Amino acid sequence: MRLSKKFLFLASSILALQLAIPVAANAEEVQGDHIAPSWVLQTDYVALGDSLAHGMNEIGVIGLGYTDFIAQALQQDGFLTSFNKGFAMSGYTTKNVLADLQNDVAKTVTGFGYKEEQAKLRASIKEAEIITLTAGANDLLPILKESQATGIDTVAIIKATKEAVSNIATILSEIKKINPKAEVYVMGYYNSFPYYSESLQNQFKLLLATLNSTIKTTTEKAGAIFVPTYDVVAKDVANYLPNPENIHLSEAGYLAVAKEAFLPIIKTSSLWDVTQAIGIDVKDRTTVEVSWQEATDNVGVANYHVYVNGKLTSTLNADTTKITLKDLLENTTYNVSIKAIDAAGNESVQNPTVTFTTKGTVSFTDTQNHWAKEYIQKAANTGIMNGYTDGTFRPESSVTRAQAAAILVRSLGLTTEEKAPFTDIANYDATTQSEIAAAYVHGLIKGTDGKFKPGQPVTRAQLAVMIHRAYEQQFNQPYIAKGDVPFADVASYNAETKHAITMLYELGIVTGNGGKFAPEAVTTRGQAAKIFTNLSQLYIQ
Known about the structure:
Layout: H1 5-11, H2 27-31, E1 43-49, H3 51-54, H4 66-76, E2 80-88, H5 94-103, E3 106-108, E4 111-112, E5 118-120, H6 121-127, E6 130-134, H7 137-150, H8 154-178, E7 183-187, H9 198-221, E8 225-227, H10 230-234, H11 237-240, H12 251-266, E9 278-284, E10 287-292, E11 301-308, E12 311-317, E13 322-325, E14 333-342, E15 353-357, H13 373-381, H14 401-412, H15 430-441, H16 460-475, H17 495-506, H18 525-540
Parallel strand pairs: 1-2, 1-6, 6-7, 7-8
Antiparallel strand pairs: 2-4, 3-5, 9-10, 10-13, 11-12, 11-14, 14-15
Helix pairs in contact: 4-12, 5-8, 7-8, 8-9, 13-18, 14-15, 14-16, 14-18, 16-17
Organism: Lysinibacillus boronitolerans JCM 21713 = 10a = NBRC 103108
Signal peptide: 1-27
Domain SLH: 359-422, 423-481, 484-541
């Protein structure tokens, strides 16, 4: 049985060396705190396999293996809740690993984060986010050891390799059945016999290249990740494989395999993706509010450091999770990153980062003397409406139904993954179709007989109905009119349309002209700029 992840991460900061740090932090405890704050979901790690995963070193003693160093690094970075290498056993072949899986063995925990002294294998796999597997070497070792005296028995090697690869495939399949979401990392083989004769070395290199290629293909086919280690070990054989009579790595070799082979691959996983922990709210062309989720820490976050374009600009208390950046330059790209710092000075490793470009002042060649110039400018600057490539806005041109739906959707920030059921929008680009679909899904438009008539100019009455529906969708409540419809020329319209026009008037979005609303008149782009700018201000309030 394991403690909950949240409780463990807050209450247990035990390194693989079994260093325990209580939750209540006095000065001495903070000084000994090596765990960094994190935005990453804390994970559980289970190591399976043979003596390499177990941690047997070059003198035949169990010590710190690559799995321990992976666990230490991940926990130090604030990523790990529990670790257990108790299912990795020296001498294990692929058959042994597979048998343990099939028999759901229980073994003594070697690691941290478990409440009980023993754990069952299948339950541990089910709860793990990270699993490493090292197996197959012991399937081949008896044959390879004999080769120094007799030469490589090709037939025996091929047979043993096929059996080992088949078992690995079955092991990975079983793991995926138990936990489809677990990320499984399979260790590739290094040259365990670098001190054999040169003639045997050439054969070993060819054999290992073929074997690693086969294991890689098998691993990836099963949805797991192959981790090559050959080059890492080969670059410093004297330090990493110092005993010619022993195939096991030294502690330095295991550290190199963890640090240079496994961890760089593990940390590219989506498990460490913190992009969803940060967001921005553009206030205007020079002001942006950046907000982020709280980070977690074994003792507690002390401060947040805010970096803008790589420079530390602010240090905030831990209870502050947003900052307003003012006086930014227009048309400028900014990169904002947040680091969490604890009382011991540990900094978060994976940091929420967002990149944005401020907008510049938009100007049009044909709006200088137009009555709606102010509204057009606001609509363009906020992205609600766009101009044309020739630099014009065309304020007196009519707004089509497709354009009205798109503008309304953009002003409200509505999206959808669904498609609209209209048969007459196929010729529009994907963005416009998606915006029409969002307007339909959110109940702003309905269409007639399966058609939307996207190219027709939208009348003022039709636009009023769209906005009325948007209001009720946005605020999740009907609008209660304070009085009767104020315009004499809408008496013949249905109740929804009259109610919509009344709402626009009472909210100050439209004023009419001489006591008339002109419901059948088409909506011009200038009128739309005013309507949608007023509407967006209403939602901000």
